[in-house]
Amino acid sequence: MPLRVRLTLWYGTALALILIIFSTILYVVTARSLRDAVDQSLEETAAAAVRSLEERGFLPLIDETELMSQFPELARIDKFFQIFSPSGTITIRSPNVKEHEMPLSRQALEVAYSGRTIFESAKYPKEPPLRLISVPIMYRGSLLYIIQVGTSMDSVEETLNRLLLVLLVSMPVALAVSLAGGWFMAGRALRPVDAITLAAQRIAGGDLTQRLTVPASADEIGRLTKTFNDMIDQLETSFRQIRQFSSDASHELRTPLTVMKGETELALRRPRETDDYKVVLESNLEEIDRMTRIVDELLFLSRADMGEVKMEYLPVPLDMLIEDVHRQASLLGQEQDIQVVLRATAPAVVLGDELRLRELFLNLLDNAVKYSHPGGTVDIALTIEQTHARVAVTDHGIGIAQEDQLQIFDRFYRTDNARAHTKKGTGLGLSICAWIVESHRGRLEVQSKVGEGSTFTAILPLAPASA
Amino acid sequence: MRILVIEDETKVGCFIKRALEEESYAVDLCEDGAKGLQMALITDYDVLIVDLMLPSLPGLEILKGVRQARIQTPILILTAQSQVDQRVKGLDAGADDYLTKPFAIDELLARIRALLRRGSTESPGVLQIDDLALNPATREVTRGGQRIDLTSKEYALLEYLMRHTGRVLTRPMISEHVWNQDFDTFTNVIDVYVNYLRNKIDRGHSKKLIHTIRGSGYMLKVD
């Protein structure tokens, strides 16, 4: 069932219930108070009659004309009265009850003997419904008379009937009107939802450039629309990244394949010297190593993305690690006539995975050596800054242009300069470095100037004990 | 036939160059986009092979640059991206054909032959003048049904002459299309090779095909 129908139905049911309860209470209370008012008026009249009789010392009653003249309050048109003897026979009655006999009921007589007042409702043929009060007049313990005052309930019943009619007619009308209103309002409230659905369908069809128009109001729909747009933004970004990534990955893997295929085919086109085959096989081996490295690094990164890379968090003495890595990198630099210098060190302990941290610093140093000019120096320095350790690796090589600095941590991103400088890189090293630093709750920064060199700084939080 | 290869992956560029040279083409290799465009604008190449992903200047820009200069040289693009849109963009920018890496060498050579065919007016697969025939696919040369063995350079020279039958070809034209940029212009190498070719093609035949045009160069024609 559509939401709009359900909303309207819920709303209608709730409203109908409220209307029914309200009308019932209204009717009951009105009926009750109208009847109470009648009873009270009857009681007052009866009391007045009793008082008059008392004033007269309960003298035996003469005739009705005299009585009427003595009790003008009894002559009111809307009420009648009768006075019964203790046996229940009528002694006197007001002129407006001439037409029909209205004898005292058995119950009223019995109650009268016990000296209590009783209210009764009565209905005689061809008469409006009546309300009666019967008051016994006692004298020294015995029943002298029973005074009965009555009144027609006609007007009360009519009022109540009219009220009932008004309620019965107006309730469905009000319900219908408000159901229509509810239907309209629900439709209005749900219209933006329809718009969102349509947009979502288009987006599901693959068009990630679609956006919803955000309504000016900051209500639930406005928030939903904005959230939805933000979500599409992120989707679009990650889709683009994935597309870029797979295109880059396929490019990086195709290049070694192209070399291997091309060189092998060329070698096989005609008989050649043994040395020629050797050159081709050596070259192919290089390409195989390159592909292996790319695949390994890709695998590592995708496992890291899925959170499957196990990381230890143990205290690592950073100063000792740096010294060790420095020794290794010095050997690496010697081959290319580059001096690796440990500029500064300080005792520092970080919580982390020693193997990964070693990989991080070796990677950074390897890069620094790779992009340095022969005869140059690479500096490494470990300093403490309040709660953080800073490890800076500085080279004086080709440097990185400002516009490239943001992207160098992206997977497979290699600047043209880097490509021209060394064919060996995979474009994944810095992505892995950044991942290692981030998984240690640190950050990796770069400062660089083209032609002057670059500084990569890993900022790692110190272990709490040594901080 | 002289070919320019613009490819930044050194190893890829090298094996393409070697494969082409073994087919007697004169090959220049350039690893930089901007420099490659300069070379393509200066020298009259017969085919350009351009990688789309290049440092300094993307392959697409090279295509546009060459076509803007109204140079009609056939261009073959190499791309590592198998995406259709890259190829479409390349072809729209003026490329005549494309190859996706990794590619088969035989296919590369066949496509280059096809592009060279397209360049001249109405030459079929086998080039023929009188009873002299040259098959670029098999590199077989016959005269009157007799097989003639040629060295690589001789073959290249003959192919160039045969593709331009009936036209006077000056020494600079010949050096530009048969030799690569390492050629030293101030030697008589061209005359030496033309003589080698005469010995193999025209000797013993009453009908001479290779003619010297005094003061200009050479021409291949039937009298």
Instruction: Decide which structural class fits the backbone of chain B.
Output: alpha/beta
In this structure, how is the largest beta sheet of chain B organized? 5 strands, parallel
Q: Structural class given helices, strands, pairing of chain A?
A: alpha+beta
Report the principal-axis shape of chain B. elongated
Helix content of chain A: 40-55%
Domain count of chain A: the total is 3
The number of distinct β-strands of chain B equals: 12
The SSE order of chain A reads HHEEHEEEHHHEHEEHEEHHHEE
* Uncertain stretches of chain B: none
Kindly report how far apart the N and C termini of chain A lie: 62 Å
- Oligomer kind: heterodimer
Please, what is the CATH homologous superfamily of the largest domain in chain A?
Answer: PAS domain
Describe the fold and architecture.
The complex is a heterodimer of chains A (467) and B (223). Chain A has 467 residues and is α+β, with helices and mostly antiparallel strands. In chain A, the strands form 3 sheets. Chain A has a 5-stranded antiparallel beta sheet, with helices on both faces. Chain A has a 5-stranded mixed beta sheet with strand order 7-9-10-12-11. In chain A, a hairpin with a 2-residue loop joins strand 9 and strand 10. In chain A, helix 8 packs antiparallel against helix 11. The radius of gyration of chain A is 52 Å and the shape is rod-shaped. Chain A starts with a helix and ends in a 6-residue tail after the last strand. The mean pLDDT of chain A is 84. Chain B has 223 residues and is α/β, with parallel strands linked by helices. In chain B, 40% of the residues lie in helices and 22% in strands. Chain B contains 8 helices and 12 strands. The longest helix of chain B has 15 residues. The radius of gyration of chain B is 18 Å and the shape is elongated. Chain B starts with a strand and ends with a strand. The model of chain B has no long low-confidence stretch (mean pLDDT 87). The chains are: A alpha+beta (467), B alpha/beta (223). At the A-B interface, helix 5 and helix 10 of A face helix 1 of B.
